[in-house]
Fold:
Amino acid sequence: MAGERIILGIDPGTTIMGYGVISVTGNKMSMLALGVLKLNKYDDHPLRLKIIFERMISLIEQYHPDELSIEAPFFGKNVQSMLKLGRAQGVAIAAALSRSIPIFEYSPRKIKQSITGKGAASKEQVAAMLMHLLQITENPETLDATDGLAAAVCHYFQNGRPEVGKKFSGWKSFLAANPERMGTP
Structure:
């Protein structure tokens, strides 16, 4: 299809990696895939990284994304957890780079703000907005899946929308400036 753009979104993790794939044609967005890679059954951290890399390659080969949007690690108090998360993100990025796919990174706050208009939104609020925007009828297996999808949708909203960076005073002004976000056909 001419003008179609595929965006793969990743919520990196070494226990659960969430992913979402969207297709964008013109200003119409639709979900192609949503899921998680569960890694908690593997005790060996390097093996988890290998599995992340292999799953990324599999997703790339299946959906042929034009771009990868990935959630940036947030700063936490547990240094070991942050190192492991950074490695997971690095492996996902390496898989995309091995296939010459451009990488875009967004902070968790930026992703939430892009989807809901509020940077401090809960994972549940983000999931509810995505279900509305993309007309998803089935609840996702975990919120990690919708976090991956949110990364992809955030990238779409950030690239190709004239109001990028615009501040809103609240829901009313956000929805007035973005009526298509209401999901009306």
In short: The chain has six helices and five strands. The chain has a mean pLDDT of 87. The beta strands are 4-11, 16-25, 28-38, 67-71, 103-106. The radius of gyration is 16 Å.
